[in-house]
Write a structure and sequence with these properties.
Helices cover 53% and strands 8% of the residues. It contains 19 helices and nine strands. It binds 6-phosphogluconic acid. 6-phosphogluconic acid (6PG) binds next to α8 and α11.
Amino acid sequence: MKEELFDFGMIGLGVMGSNLLLNMADHGYAVIGYDKNTDKTKLLESNAGKDARVRGVNTLEEMIKSLKVPRKLMMLVPAGAPVDSVLEDLKPLLQAGDIIIDGGNSHYTDTLRRIDELKPTGFHFMGVGISGGEEGARRGPSIMPGGDQEAYEKVAPILKAVAAQVNGEPCVDYLGKNAAGHYVKMVHNGIEYSIMQLISECYDLMHHGLAMSNKELHEVFKKWDSGEMKSYLLEITAAIFEQKDDKGKGELVDKISDKAGAKGTGKWTSQEGLDLPIPVPNIDAAVMMRNLSSLVEERVIANNIYLTHIEKIDIPKEELISLLHDALYFATIISYAQGLAMLTQASGELKMDIPIPAVVKVWRGGCIIRSALLDVFKNVFQEDNYKNLLLNKNIAQVLQLKLPALQKVVSLAAGNNYAASGLMASLNYFNAYRRHHLPTNLIQAQRDFFGAHTYERVDCEGIFHTQWESIS
Ligand code: 6PG
């Protein structure tokens, strides 16, 4: 009897890869996974439900010959050289028309290069961002596909079946040409960095500024997560403050080193922001703070030199908590605004045609930055294609309302030696973005003074240079 072929193949059976395959199997797809490691293939099969068609194999050849043609396969391997190496291994095994999805966090320029390199083969290659971590992959991630639209249409039914659903709509959609999928995921991660930084600053101001216990912090974040700011990141933050340390007394959070790690996607977003250029100062601040957190020894020495005292802030507890709520709400909107403005700019600049309303829809569920705010933004972009969320009058109203809280929080933080880089970046961005006149006319004058770099005038067209009076 001829063995039935499989619908979808996965290369790389780490937790994400196997969870995504099991998710597909739950939706009735016959799936096959490849990994060199036999423990991983066995684990995949043993985790499958009894009616699911799931197989694990240890050679690529076996997987490729077991797939329906055109083959649909995804790789979830570490970004960089491993992706190129898998593609090299696949080249002799596949045929024109087969679809290969890179579902990892690849840099978008690598994706562009791979699309070009694979053109002569006739394979369809797509860069697809996937967010939601292990749990998301198993129960429903947010999926950000870009590139080959013909290939997308062929894999769309599977992706729609496994993606998170919000109000009956799957959190997946075609998000643009070329490397748009990986670009959108990169910016998603930049926003993720920014919001995490903001939450950590609120934690600092409550923990040290109000001497609040972990139990109290849990209660505050839980409350914030039940209102207008409801989000996955607030939900997990509330849960973190409850987690007991299994190696000693108290809660785990207090035993974790403050040296923050990073795999690079936040830094890429900042770098791209500078290159476009489009300002994303909240993302820059978040990346910078992770880098600064690594300077552990220097921070200890500096602390002794400056005898910095992080003191209790002299303000009624409930008042500061309420101010922080509004400041975080404001700064979170600013974080999304910067990321979405960056996508808008990059979409044209890099010829990706990214549909921003679709991005917002796809981010509503399954991903790390999912939040009630995305529903608000969805309505904003239904109205018009704003270059920046801040130009929408409903968003403007919310920001005006919350602005005094952010101003107060920033001044309290500054006056009490707190490094609230994200909150401060949000306020600075807002103050600069809404100004008709910035002091940059002076910078233009200076540039022209020392370097004859020329300037434009406010009262007539043209490019000007002045012989400035020299310094006596
Ligand atoms: C997601 C996450 C995921 C990963 C981050 C972590 O959307 O599911 O963003 O991609 O957890 O890359 O990034 P850092 O290690 O750089 O914090």
